[in-house]
Amino acid sequence: MTRNAGPGLGFEESLLFEQSRPGRRGAETPRSDVPAVDAAALLGDALRKRAPELPEVSEVEVVRHFTRLSTWNAAIDLNLYPLGSCTMKYNPKLNERVARLPGFAQAHPLSPESNTQGLLELCWRLERLLAEISGMDRVTLQPAAGAQGELAGIMMIRAYFDQRGEKRHKVLAPDSAHGTNPASAALNGYEVVTVPSGEDGILHPDALARVMDEDVAALMITNPNTLGLFEEHIVELCELVHARGGLVYGDGANLNALLGVARPGDMGIDVMHFNLHKTFSTPHGGGGPGAGPVGLTTALAPYMPRPVVEKTAEGRYAFDFDRPHSIGRLHGYHGNVGMLIRAYCYILTLGAEGLRRCAEMAVLNANYLLERLRPAYHVPIDRPVMHECVISDRALADTGVSTLDVAKRLIDHGYHPPTIYFPLIVAGAMMIEPTESESQEGLDRFADALLAIAREARDDPETVRSAPHHTRHRRLDETRAARRPILRWRPGSSSN
Amino acid sequence: MAEYEIPDTLRFSEQDEWARVEGERVVIGVTDYAQQQLGDIVFVELPEVGAELQMGDPFGVIESVKAVSDLFAPVTGTVLEINEALAEQPEAINEDCYGAGFLLTLQPADPQQTEHLLDAAAYRAHIQKRA
Lengths: 496, 131
Fold this sequence. Notes:
The complex is a heterodimer of chains A (about 500) and B (about 130).
Chain A: H1 16-19, H2 39-43, H3 59-70, H4 93-99, H5 102-105, H6 117-134, E1 138-140, H7 146-163, E2 170-174, H8 180-187, E3 191-195, H9 205-211, E4 216-222, H10 234-243, E5 247-251, H11 264-267, E6 271-273, H12 276-279, E7 294-296, E8 308-311, E9 317-320, H13 337-373, E10 389-392, H14 403-412, E11 419-420, E12 429-432, H15 440-459, H16 461-465, H17 478-483
Parallel strand pairs in A: 2-3, 2-4, 4-5, 5-6
Antiparallel strand pairs in A: 1-7, 6-7, 8-9, 10-12, 11-12
Chain B: E1 11-12, E2 17-22, E3 25-30, H1 32-38, E4 41-45, E5 52-53, E6 58-64, E7 68-72, E8 77-82, H2 92-95, E9 104-108, H3 120-130
């Protein structure tokens, strides 16, 4: 098999297992200078009978393998990345420079507190900044991502009711909720009750009142919601829940729309998570781990994950482990600290004015895109949006072109597709979040691509339906991949 | 509106399940409308034989390339048999949702309960209202 048979210097790449040749190696270990031991005697039956079949490759092959794969990436550093509810904003390079300062980069999690005062101070200050931005009283920095933040939040809610001797079994979530909301509630043993949104796409107090009772521990709500709409009744919704003794969990995935303008804590939210990798410009996915700090009111503070960084009377920073009601640890050591540094850098770089400007531009960009797309795409709920907009394939129904086809064709235009078929309450949804990072010209190029695809759907639907055409591989059989997945390489099998 | 097969002999729930009375048993599945909306079905999670289903409550999960959805019991009853073939061939729901792609059979708690479900005309109207 030819490995570099791509177009020009666009490299194809096989699995490392397929490149393996017996005896080839990338590193040599030094001769042992301690006495050999009898592994069989020490390990008994635990000693494996056969060596693992690891790929045998040279250093240069490994380097080329991963470098070639890295050239296949779609990334925010290449183009607008419109994944709705993911806030794929640009990650400023200054964040990276600051995170690499030796005092941060070389700190060991087991170093004594006296040696890491700067890092601890950063954590302490970041907690205060996030609390100020959100209107919450305290913030735990431990959770490693939004979903773990939700888990932490619901665990604290459960601990709160346990402590009060209240048995509550239900958690409410609107039908537009992120799938993680019901999952976090169910993981904590709660029955999830779905509350229908109104025809205007937002949650109404009367719909909530019908299902709200003393058996409800919490309402989980995202504001703005996944349709990009501001939950206008949020204050009344929170009051309804509080009146029956319940708590309100705020999913902070869409916080970017509110920065410096409105605060979840002021709306009545009791617990919420932040996605530092969305709102505060730390890398997504392969670029680095996530971080999902959780803000909470004073009433929930006893249950925060431990340890918590506190400032002592002498002005030193120290871990407080003495929190008997804590739900415990959620992460080894102290969370994904490298992400906390980047988020802190971002907040200080922008300042209060900059954060507000960021929300304003994100909202302006989403509404601008919606106006440009309106002539060609159906807008299921036609109201001014916040940071993202939802369109559907309904106007293309007579062409036979679906949302999936439009998404695939966008790849030919050089764009990662938006979030599709979500939220579930819109058939054929395309959920587009441009973020504040894009210029007007950048937004126009993206809108032009979507408008060209809608025209093409009328003139030449087959080209859209068989897209993508300019990719390394043509349309993949996603159905077969889901029904008969091949999850690992086996000797004798081929990646093709 | 696209064409959907809605057999006159069946009853339907608003959550797009169908029910067919066969003697003392009730066979249930998802409708043609549901399978067309979902697209290619890739996985179905069904309850165990003997499980008690409650009308309107979720009893399983259906997953397509587009989305994951709950399955809601159209009537209350005890599971007598599940369609084991769906584990290997979930596409049967796309190909024959009223036949080989059925989900399970139930011993209904109240045999009259299916009478309260929608008939074909009412279900057709229900779909049109949502379009």
